[in-house]
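worker-3 :: picked Lipoprotein
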Amino acid sequence: MYKNTLLLAILTIVFSSGCALSTSKELELNEIHMNKLVHGITEQEMTLKNAIEKYSDHVVLGTINAFEKLNNTRDVYKVTISDSVLGGTPEEILVYTAEKNILEMDKEYLLFLKDFSSNLYDQDFFVLNEEFVIKVEEDGTLARLVDVFKKTYVPPFVEEKFNNYGELKKYIQANYNKKKKINKQSVDKLNEKDLVDKADHIVIITVTEVTPVNNGLAIVGYRVNKAYKNGNLVNVHSLLLPNSVEVGKEYLIFLRNTEGSAVTITSRQGSILEKDSKEYEKMLKLLN
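worker-3 :: tokens ->
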């Protein structure tokens, strides 16, 4: 269940936003077939409207600088943002893609992005809408990627006027209203008191099984040895945790409730303490 939840969160996420489209006509795409790499993922008709309203929180102009490791395992793009069309991001961001080489280094792109924030990852990042990969040439000309493997690009729109960054930016800003702030849910570190207060469950567990999944995470089977706070995890049959935990070892963990009966770690740092570590012993004194 957790593996499926993770893949859904990364590849499709729940795309919803509060945009408003004016009565202006929709720009017609030159090619409307789905990008061959991600066939089957997009559920809505591929249009600029859906790309913005259903599959993006932010539309920004950025230059691809380098790869950086997410959770010390997964390559993501490091991107410098030079202009914001809708929404807004920091100047330097990480962009997650299903295909490692979908973007070219040192090239500029109009990026349609969803923000993603979780304590399970060491950094927040943005997920690229890979159906709308639009390269911006030095003269402002736009080219949309339609075949990942052959690196085939076409002018995005039938109406030639809007195959220019400046013109498309004006069109988008005139017809869409998106002032969404980044939905930051991650917490890097809490002091001991706040960690105890904010956790919904504080338990000591023994790890019984570790099944690695993508991005430095693992589905973890466990047995609860002692509960210090709540600890009613009868419907939580496994945990999604960093894959650094080991079978047979005992951990003091701090969990918070999420959607449904799911749980996740309360903070990125300090929520998983191995038995006999200094941090473990110090926190036990506070709890007892």
